[in-house]
Amino acid sequence: MFKDAWLVASKDLRIERRSRVLTNQLLPFTLVILIIFAFTFDTHPNLLVTLSPGLFWVASLFAMTIALQRSFSLEAENQARDGLLLYGLESAGIFLGKVVAIVIQSAIVELFIGFGIVILYAAPLHEVVFLALSAFTATIGISCVGVVFGAMVTGRSRDSLLPLLIFPVVAPVLLSATKAWEDYVRGKVSLGDPWLGLLVVFAIAFGAVGVLTFGSILEE
Amino acid sequence: MSAYVEAGYGVVTAALVGYGAVVSVRARKLRAEPLVVRVDDSRPLEEGPRD
Amino acid sequence: MKSDRAVQGLGLVAVLAIVATYILGLWITPPAAVMGNLVRLLYIHPPVAWVAYLAYGVTSVASILYLWKRTRDPRWDLIAASSAEIGVVFTALTLLTGSIWGRPTWGVWWTWDARLTTTALLFLLYVGYLALRRATPDVTQRSKRSAVAALIAFIDVPIVHQSVVWWKTLHQSATVFNASLSPKVHGEMAWTLLLGFIAFSLAYVWMLIRRYQIAVLISKRQEILLQGALDERMSTV
Q1: What was the ipTM of the complex prediction?
Q2: What is the pLDDT of residues C29-56, one digit of tens each?
Q3: Of A11, B29, C22, C164, which is most buried by a Cβ count within 10 Å?
Q4: Which residue, among A142, A152, A195, A217, would best test binding to C if mutated, counting the most C CBs under 10 Å from its CB?
Q5: Nearest chain C Cα to B50, which residue?
């Protein structure tokens, strides 16, 4: 299972590296989002600092949705997905591989948005290690949900359905991740932070759902 | 009686009646419509499809 | 059709029970001390919300029974879909009646209370579920995928609720639910509320049966059309 996951993840990442969609499209897009936020909150520069945890996650979620759509629309062409199953890859492995690839891309995007917030909004960062930990856990959870739904709805004009399916499900992740960040800003740091716990529970629960059900989504 | 109470009961009644009517009319229609079955068994199946 | 008579009878009983709830709730019961006539909304709002949760519960159970290979049966999928649609109707009603009650009571149409927020997300989760069904034409694909979506919603709801409860308790001490506003339910008021629960549950069961019948008829029709198309193709040799 883990070998299959590694194969799928490295395949996806290789495609991304060669197509350069991440650097040529996703990162510039997040920059545009950050600038638009700055425009809309123009009158209150301090507001940007206060809102930066929430803005960070909204920008990340948009970018992740696009990355997911891309990851699956590539495979919708030429029935490449059936190919993966025909090669004898385990469906749980395919799921994990996809999640790993999305998490790595998202981590790069989030790092970029993080820098953008620090530089453009002059937002101070506190407890960077904990911040990274909670962001990483949240990203895993969102990716698990995203990969399951992405496999369901890509191709044939169904792409527009993806945000409607993902956003309500990951709403608690966004809430928890934002609140965890605010806690760190206030200097309340501990591994027992309830928000971090919720993020871990979410990631485990939907990781398990993905591993168990991805087979019945792929095989028709 | 307050207008809010009337609005609340009105909304619920409208939705129940509306949904109930749609569901029962649709069920009746579907049951009344004869199924068009286009089966042509004048030829033996063994001939198989052309392509 | 004997069973169809029974369904018609059930529908009639549901309508009578709802009418009785209305009469008791609107005219027979007295206005409450603090809330006045607004208390009358409480005879329909909790029963409607209960039916919404009941409907989603049925969808979850049916979807899990479909996903589990040993109990897999296309009928579970049709039951799940029928119940989800009714659930969406009743969640919309829950939000609407709650909002209508909240406006004069709290002074706002909407407030980010834990229960309200959870219900709103629940509504969106199942709107997505229905949209997913509509966007997936293949029957087996649709059944499997929507069952997974229902499972995700089922797991998500407690997490959503917990997160929103924390959100409120950790960051806002005063809650919108004032103790003096929550009515002491007793006597004929309690009976009216109980009747409301029964009446709306009966209405739910009737709707579910009718909606399920439609789903079965449509899927049969599709099967026959498909078979017809196949036969036609076979015979044009």
Answers
A1: 0.87
A2: 877 767 778 888 888 999 999 999 999 9
A3: C164
A4: A152
A5: C237
